[in-house]
């Protein structure tokens, strides 16, 4: 299942799939403040990428919300990972913080010269950000970023399942 | 000026008002504090002088908020109805210890309440409110995140799951001498889509092989899904309805995508309850196909003559432990007994039983919350007494949580008993037609068996355990099968020997004095020279696996639960060393 559209020379695609098993220049991992990979996607990164990724992360110490860090992706299909520390569990100002986290990830990718980036449904699921809000904030910020930038050739939003896909599809249609 | 409330407390109260429905409100109002529930709770029985274990006390933690913020009585006469609010994160942490640490949501109190109050529902709801603001035991967070993002509770990656199915398929082909024996994956239009617990992939793949053997001999048209295969649901334990609905939806959608006739759920109490009874409500889903427990499937196969069993093959005496979720919440208690009666000869009933049975202590996600293990084991005294009174050699259960919970109780209370499941007993009792039709006067053709003594030839294995008996047992089994075995009795010695001897495999006990197995494991993975060493974690305390999960390093290649028998040890070491 997949849809895509062109915005300012960039192909934006929405699809279902496992972001940790995806051949892409860089993908975004929704990181914790202690920068430990932990479980979930973190577990998949450790298992597929190997221990070097956590080792690289350990050099950064700890972080605040909306901070982003970049590491190699070890043995994964992707080349790099942007570890973006997003807001969690109904914390205050969650929408503003999520918007900054998405934008900072895009800026970091631009700064490193990446042309292709993949995002998961940022903060949805375990961290409890409602899917419609997550989809709206992500596509709003991706859209805004692309208005002023022609750095990316492709931005992929890779969601886990049909349940995540439907609200993202609704917001994707508003993306321009 | 009113007291300032923390952000999290505000959010909990906001969500509380949204979650209260007529059923919950009626139950919250109905309790008359008669105390009948107290005598039903295994926590109270183990802690008779501590009122904080009483089900009504635990429910009061939610009731006081309901009275204060939702019910009119709390606004008018708060002192009379004991209405209270919550203000600080510390109070929320205290609530966490009550609802996660002092209750397994077993519902024994619920079915014994004369007013029909379902305390376990309150408890689950309170858990959900806390989880929504990120307040939960670390183990709950670990497991929930794996299930949200990887799709199963134990973080099993798709390639590892498929690899395990292929491995089991090869074992079966070898056993039957027939390459046509399959564990079909994603086969369309099958009568049965078979879903399992990730524990089966990670710790007990023989249950998959046993089920496959039964399906094969029954001539079933069946398949296993490549994704959405986990029928467990941590949403039931964490109180997170969104997780509960999402997990159910993945499974149901996969069955529909495969155009499966019905969904068969392997032996798992909470998985059965969640998948068959709860997830359609959490996810607001109309499920268009039949869902049944594998217990029913196996029983029907025997009744219909599709498989034949010989109960003589299962020696020893057996008792049956009713899983709380199967028996109390789903009414599944006669069918497992009927099936057990067909595959074993000596059955000794446990008392009380069926809906009145006591919890194994591993329910409600308790196995993932190691901080409450001492409380849990203490509360298991009544379970231990029940088990011991049967005098049985084996306790049979249709639940993977119960397997772990009972194993812990048996070990803690030093009972001489083993835990098994119905699928293992049915598979063991199977009469394989090819074997039966060989005429007696003919000399059966010798099936070429692998050279048992040479299984581990050329392999060096380091056995690390502080218990000499375990080291002797492991060493003799592995040496008898061709391995060169070296031993270490503590963590420091293990690391020293690893560097000096470079073994192919380490069997590593977790619970050791000094440097524990978790620290040794992390040291191995972080050492460039040793990082590739294959490691099999061995523990008698399943909750200690968290020591491994939480480490920021690549996971071990295998796990073994104590007590370990010879067959299991060889089987798992072969798998880890990829010896076919």
From TrEMBL, chain A:
<protein>
    <submittedName>
        <fullName>O-acetyl-ADP-ribose deacetylase</fullName>
    </submittedName>
</protein>
<feature type="domain" description="Macro">
    <location>
        <begin position="1"/>
        <end position="176"/>
    </location>
</feature>
<dbReference type="InterPro" id="IPR002589">
    <property type="entry name" value="Macro_dom"/>
</dbReference>
<dbReference type="Pfam" id="PF01661">
    <property type="entry name" value="Macro"/>
</dbReference>
<dbReference type="InterPro" id="IPR043472">
    <property type="entry name" value="Macro_dom-like"/>
</dbReference>
TrEMBL record, chain B:
<dbReference type="Pfam" id="PF00072">
    <property type="entry name" value="Response_reg"/>
</dbReference>
<dbReference type="InterPro" id="IPR009051">
    <property type="entry name" value="Helical_ferredxn"/>
</dbReference>
<dbReference type="InterPro" id="IPR004017">
    <property type="entry name" value="Cys_rich_dom"/>
</dbReference>
<keyword id="KW-0249">Electron transport</keyword>
<keyword id="KW-0479">Metal-binding</keyword>
<dbReference type="InterPro" id="IPR017896">
    <property type="entry name" value="4Fe4S_Fe-S-bd"/>
</dbReference>
<feature type="domain" description="4Fe-4S ferredoxin-type">
    <location>
        <begin position="94"/>
        <end position="123"/>
    </location>
</feature>
<dbReference type="InterPro" id="IPR017900">
    <property type="entry name" value="4Fe4S_Fe_S_CS"/>
</dbReference>
<keyword id="KW-0813">Transport</keyword>
<dbReference type="GO" id="GO:0016491">
    <property type="term" value="F:oxidoreductase activity"/>
</dbReference>
<keyword id="KW-0004">4Fe-4S</keyword>
<dbReference type="Pfam" id="PF02754">
    <property type="entry name" value="CCG"/>
</dbReference>
<keyword id="KW-0597">Phosphoprotein</keyword>
<dbReference type="InterPro" id="IPR011006">
    <property type="entry name" value="CheY-like_superfamily"/>
</dbReference>
<dbReference type="GO" id="GO:0051539">
    <property type="term" value="F:4 iron, 4 sulfur cluster binding"/>
</dbReference>
<keyword id="KW-0408">Iron</keyword>
<dbReference type="InterPro" id="IPR001789">
    <property type="entry name" value="Sig_transdc_resp-reg_receiver"/>
</dbReference>
<dbReference type="Pfam" id="PF13183">
    <property type="entry name" value="Fer4_8"/>
</dbReference>
<dbReference type="GO" id="GO:0000160">
    <property type="term" value="P:phosphorelay signal transduction system"/>
</dbReference>
<keyword id="KW-0411">Iron-sulfur</keyword>
<protein>
    <recommendedName>
        <fullName>Response regulator</fullName>
    </recommendedName>
</protein>
<feature type="domain" description="Response regulatory">
    <location>
        <begin position="460"/>
        <end position="577"/>
    </location>
</feature>
